[in-house]
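User: Can you predict the 3D structure of beta-glucosidase? Sequence below.
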Amino acid sequence: MWLPEAAVAALAVLPYLPRTHASTSRPYKSLSKDAKMLGLAPALLLGVNATVQVSEYSQAVLKPVESIDAIYKRQAAQPFNNDYTGPYYESPPKYPSPWGSGAGDWATAYEKARSFVSGLTLMEKVNLTTGTGWESDKCVGNTGAIPRIGFPSLCMQDGPLGIRFADYVTAFPAGINVAATWSRELARARGEAMGAENRDKGVDTLLGPVCGPLGRHPEGGRNWEGFSPDPYLTGALIAPTIQGIQSQGVMACTKHFIANEQEHFRQVGESIGYGYNITATLSSNIDDKTMHELYLWPFADAVRAGTASGQCSLDIGLRILTAA
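Assistant: Sure. Here are the predicted structure tokens for beta-glucosidase:
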């Protein structure tokens, strides 16, 4: 995805955000100061060939930056290493999948899962892990039930604006409108209202909120579902949204992990339907540095906020990596 020089300049503001903002555990507070600082970005996007170095919220120094062509040439000349992996990097698969580690009592979680699964028949295992029905019932997707042990099926329902296929429901403001408020409090209130409505309709998992697409492609057909192309702002608002939804007894499903930026012709069927000779799904290939600094940031905030689940992306290359 090509970015004009001014966009690169605007994105240069991101590394200078205060580190404390990366944590979603901070009490809700106004984003107005951040808004003032990031308000420089639109001006840069309009054509100022500069980078922004921010030492304080109220101070900024503009300095010329190298051209896009120069950046590409310099990066292409760099040897392969862990810091720069190139535009078509794919991490090698690891088998078997590594065990979960880090914060939390993983040993207890694995023991509970092992105890539950060991008591199931093969057919019950297949039924539990096989999704059923796209729009075949009242939900956009269901998991199988296990009546023998009283394990119910799960009803999953779209979407990021509320319930998609039902009557007497609310069409909530889009994520991009929520971001325009710069208010964690409103994001939380919206999440609570969405969760309550889903619960009342019998939905177990709300397929949202969205931080992928992040929205860096101006013509992205689903940019409105997310909050902002700025990963910090998206992370700051997706966290209270998730917490609001789940406070009502409904599981949030943060999507689409990751780099689901290409909406048009992301599937071969659409390409053929329009008469184009495109025989492979378009793939979003992103270098490791960009992946971590931009696209992964809000998903990390979603995990810290306790999102119950996630949905993988629909672009071919990264779908293989993220759905595994």
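The longest strand covers residues 251-257. Residues 184-200 form the longest helix (17 residues).
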